[in-house]
Amino acid sequence: MERATRCCLGLQYNFRPNLFVSGSMSQMRYLPDHTVSPDEYKYGWVATANVFWNMTPRMQLGAEVNIGKRGNFSGQHRYARRAELMCMFSF
Predict the structure, then answer these.
(1) Inter-residue long-range contacts of 57-61, CB under 8 Å, 24+ positions, other chains counted
(2) pLDDT averages per 10-residue partition of the chain, 91 residues
(3) Model-level pTM?
């Protein structure tokens, strides 16, 4: 039998009705009850922060930053980072 644990948390704060920020974090851990390969997934986490601004009822701007980490049973780990921008116009 294999088990895993997962934990998630998210928050949002509204500065004004048309401007808000949010953030989230989640983690997962693999808990096998048998021997696994050293390069197999053991745990990972990801954190995200973003901001949205509704300039008008039809136009929205947004920005987001993500960072994550993956770890293997061997102790090796790697990070991933990403930044994004968004501009949306609704017809």
Answers:
(1) 58/89, 58/90, 58/91, 59/87, 59/88, 59/89, 59/90, 60/86, 60/87, 60/88, 60/90, 61/85, 61/86, 61/87, 61/88
(2) 89 97 96 89 96 96 97 95 96 88
(3) 0.81
